[in-house]
Request: fold
Amino acid sequence: MRYVILRDDDTNALTPVECLERLYRPFLDRGLPVNLAVIPDVATDTTVPGGGFEGYLFARNGVTERRAAIGSNAPLVDYLRGNPGYRVVQHGCHHEYFEFDCDSTASIVERLERGTRLLMDAGFPRPETFVAPYDKLSRASLREAARRFRVLSTGWYEWRRLPRGWWPKYALKKITRAPHWRVRHTLLLSHPGCLLSCHRRYETMLAEVIRSVNSRRLTVLVTHWWEYFRQGRTDEALIGFLHRTADYLANNPEIQVISFSTLVRHRVPLN
Reply:
């Protein structure tokens, strides 16, 4: 059996409900869990290096408040809570640029705990999984996140950023070429890049997903909901590939789609 975790990043208080519904109804109807990495208190003015607003802010529609907590969007919260196939995990706090590539332990702790509190205040269970914005975590951020979460999901790990006590486990991971590893009670997952993305070649996208799933015991598939609606324009072709992925995952008896919480509570093989 091979296992797949679908992780969608950047849901926030400004995310239109209809976007998530359009993307993930085929998954929900098939009983395939969708792990949403939710920004607890999104910064509404975060920009990319080129100067424009981050893509997940395309629906900001003149918002003047500098931040928007997830609980401020009652229809979105009701929709997510009303569809138990969605599993909410914590995606940073404000999603400011490289906000956890930081050496200030006090700042890191404040953001981690504020993010968790805001998700719980909105009625979601205490998150057990943490996803850092831009997959960037400093040594201090790794240490503090591991103290508070059962799972860290990121793209890769650099030994220079790891707490020194983690180095022996990391060396074993590298020797065995394992994509996932564990430090004490925390699972450290990596992913093969954002395979479902507007930045990938559409004609080979599904084949790359299949190849990746078949090459490892557990695959974290990462995508971003807003890429399917860039600047408010629907990319029907990209949505089609996402829904074909749902068909492939649902119809393959050798694949089980699971949530991060299932990984925590059951003996799912990592590698």
Summary: The CA atoms of residues 6 and 221 lie 5 Å apart.
